[in-house]
Amino acid sequence: MEKNGYPLDELDFSILSFLQKDGRMSFTVIAEKLNVSIGTIRTRVNKLIEEGTINIIGRVNPDKVGFRAYAHIAVFVRPATFKEKVAQKISKLPEVSFLAMTSGDYDLEVDVMCRDNDHLVQFINEISKFEGVYQTKTTLYFKVYKYAQPDLNLLK
């Protein structure tokens, strides 16, 4: 499979699968499990990072660290030529965990994590002031049952 001009092979996908399960897994353990050298794993992981295929981060459970208002916000933009400008401004806000342009009833889909409802209201008020934001529609997530990365086996 070709990603940004860099071909991903079975070894790359295997490495990515291990790191998705445990981003702190040592190169030694991965090399042993895949029966290749540690140097091969180090080189491949560094290339995957360089190419932007993977970012190794610590993912927190939002509820356990104190985010009590997790919401989906549909953003309607008028005129349509402002979509990109509005998306760029929203993407810079620290509350945003997901942002995408859509083809549905609204123009941008935004997921946010806020401390509480007051913080969420402040966030909505802030983006509502952006030039081009015509309307927002917010849906609160009461309970998140799954928050995960895609299963790479689906690409096989």
Instruction: Specify the CATH class of the largest domain.
Output: Alpha Beta
- Percent of residues in beta strands: 15-25%
The major beta sheet can be summarized as:
4 strands, antiparallel
Helix percentage range:
25-40%
- Indicate the structural class: alpha+beta
**Count of discrete alpha- or pi-helical segments spanning 4 or more residues:** 6
What overall form do the CA principal axes indicate?
elongated
Q: What is the helix/strand order?
A: EEHHHHEHEEHE
Report the uncertain regions: none
For the biggest β-sheet, the strand order reads: 4-5-3-6
Mean pLDDT: 92
Instruction: Quickly count the domains.
Output: 2
Task: Write down how many β-strands occur, each being a DSSP E stretch of 2 or more residues.
Answer: 6
Gap between N and C termini, in Å?
10 Å
Named CATH architecture of the largest domain: 2-Layer Sandwich
The CATH superfamily of the largest domain appears as Lrp/AsnC effector binding domain/regulation of amino acid metabolism (RAM) domain
Radius of gyration: 19 Å
CATH topology of the largest domain: Alpha-Beta Plaits
Fold blueprint:
Layout: E1 2-3, E2 6-7, H1 10-21, H2 27-34, H3 38-50, H4 62-65, E3 69-77, H5 83-91, E4 96-101, E5 108-114, H6 117-128, E6 133-141
Antiparallel strand pairs: 1-2, 3-5, 3-6, 4-5
Helix pairs in contact: 2-3
Plain-language structure description:
By secondary structure, the chain is an alpha+beta fold. It folds into two domains: 2-50, Winged helix-like DNA-binding domain superfamily/Winged helix DNA-binding domain (Arc Repressor Mutant, subunit A, Orthogonal Bundle); 63-141, Lrp/AsnC effector binding domain/regulation of amino acid metabolism (RAM) domain (Alpha-Beta Plaits, 2-Layer Sandwich). 37% of the residues lie in helices and 22% in strands. It has six helices and six strands; from the N terminus they run ββααααβαββαβ. The chain has helices at residues 10-21, 27-34, 38-50, 62-65, 83-91, 117-128; strands spanning 2-3, 6-7, 69-77, 96-101, 108-114, 133-141. The strands form two sheets. The protein has a four-stranded antiparallel beta sheet. The protein has a two-stranded antiparallel ribbon with strand order 1-2. Helix 2 crosses helix 3 (38-50). The model has no long low-confidence stretch (mean pLDDT 92). Residues 8-68 form the HTH asnC-type domain.
